[in-house]
Write a structure and sequence with these properties.
heterodimer, A: mainly alpha, Arc Repressor Mutant, subunit A, B: mainly beta, 27 strands
Chain lengths: 180, 542
Amino acid sequence: MRLFGVKAELLSEREPLIRERVDVAALFADHHLGLVRLALLMLGDLATAEDVVQEAFARTHAGRRRLRDPGSALAYVRSAVLNGCRSVLRRRSLAFRRAVPYAPPVWSAESVAMIGEDRREVLVALSGLPRRQREALVLRFYLDLSYEEIADTMGVAGSTARSTITRGLAALARTLGEES
Amino acid sequence: MNEITDRLRDATRAVGETIDQVPAFSPAAGRTRSEVAGRVRRAWLVPLAAAASVTVAVAGGVAVARGGDGSPGRNAATSAGPAAAPTFFAETGESGITVRSVNGGAETSRVPNPSGKERFVGIQAAQDNRLFYAVSAEDDCRPRLYRFTLDEEGKVGSFGPLPFAPPEGTRPTSLAVSGDGGKLAYGLMSCGGGAEKGRLVVADTVTGDSRTWTAKDDVDVSELSMTADGRFVLFARYVRMELLSSAPVTDEATEATPTATEAPSPYPIVSRVGEPVEPATAASPLVAEGASDPTVAVSPVGEPVAPVTAAITASPVASEATATAVPSPATTAEPSASSSVEASVVVTEASPVQPSVAGKGIAPQVEWCHLPAATILDEPGVASSPAVTPDEDPVEVHAVVKVCPDLSDLRLLDTGAPGDSLEQASSISLGGGSRGMLGAAISPDGSRIVAAFQNMEIDGKTGLPVGGSADLIAYDTADGKATGVVYHEAGEAGIQLLDLDGTGERVIVSRGDEIGAVDAAGYRALVKTGEPSRIYGSRYAW
């Protein structure tokens, strides 16, 4: 079987890559809570946030042999979580899926007791921003990532990350200013 | 601005602190996808997600007001003519309903959305391609049905709402129409967001009388299609969920991990495994006995277990894709199972002997769409796929990306039988599995079911698509066995089945950023959509 001869060669040439595999399980164990919190900020409800992170984990795990650079693994994983959040939000926005029930967001009125009205206002304003601005602001001011890290995570240029944040903050200030 | 950033920091942290523990991870507890697909995946997934998650309505309806006794006579305007090859196709989109000519795709007519709050979300055509029905969704949860006719120029005439509508507070999920337009079927879900048992309604478009079948669970009823006589309704049933990730892993995930060499290939990865194929001729007669409607370039195929039975569609296929030999549709019929609302992908390294790695227990075998990853290995360099050039570096890491939407549970309802339970609809198992489809529809004569499948190959290094295949497979409704490959094409473009025409000979599909037609001559583009991410399953009809 010529085919299998080829296959055997392929494997031997790939072995070094396999050895460098990132320990995805450890990565997630270290960052699980933070990732769920990130997803919660994007999505508003914990159950879905947990699902998204779980899914990102499974996905990353599946592609773990592709993760060759441990240094970039966390950014990769954050991207996976953000992508998962985007999928959920997109699904929620589909006309026919509006009816899909999900828990009231953390910024709904019910959560005032937990986080206070002032914070709730901020979160409502944040949730009303365009997706990219929302993501960028959360990455910047919740995760305290650098512009470069944000750019990596979001898959945009550094300058784009910076301008997105600027615009997001301005929009946020406008919204909150109008309210107060 | 500092105040804003301080408030933002404070608020986001406060939210973060509302949770302090999270459940443990389980590597196998989710659909597995790879971000490697990255950009490519995005382009693909949106339409797929849409296909899986949308649906719309259509159905035969009548503009005639309901008579005082509820039984107005059927007049010419309410009944479609004989089945005819489509000359027009209609789309519902942002700007309302657009009717286009099949020849050239030129717009012939347009109907704007009823209002800013009420939008057309689905459309269907009766068998004559002149009588159309549309369904709208409204912000206040009052769906409405519309009917219109087309003249020979494709101009809309006698447009108007039907005198009856789905119940308030519901949202139609999908619609189907009988051949003469006299009956319409639609699925219903709660509009307000509450859980609601899945319902399927069949309404008489003349009298407005309807009959409802109710599922015992909170399921979505979607992807409806109806036989010409209005008796049988094919639909997909799936459990509604936000995300699949917490769904239980099926038994398959814990099964012994097959090795690449011993695992049966459950998906048409012939282009990768390089098995010898025997070309068959196209346009062979449909195998289904007694099928009254001729079928599209169908090639006879072997038993579902036959490893490879090749067929070639006699099709001048579009541009970059080329018709090639395909494996038995049976192998196509068994891909993936996922009730996920979104397509998912997995990327594996192009290691045909991956089990020597994955099988060592280094990590639990990744399972995707109920297929162990090891069974969907890519084999670059030996592929017969034209998209994979032979001179590519064989060490290049390729990945197989497959679409795994949630048409996992096809059912066939006999509306001629008594009863009001949707559970009485019989489960349709296509060749051992109806999973991983991108649309399915029953033929007007009811003899067969056509379903679309696809896979896709991605260069793991560049993330660019390098190949794949798309298949439309016909199955015998009676036994679920594959009867032929309606269409196959190699290449990265996937094909989503949107609608069958009144004759059952032509399929309108979405392919990349095109809406196209598949018939005995193969595939041809009808119109460019310009936005591949926005194709909803029931947005197009002919």
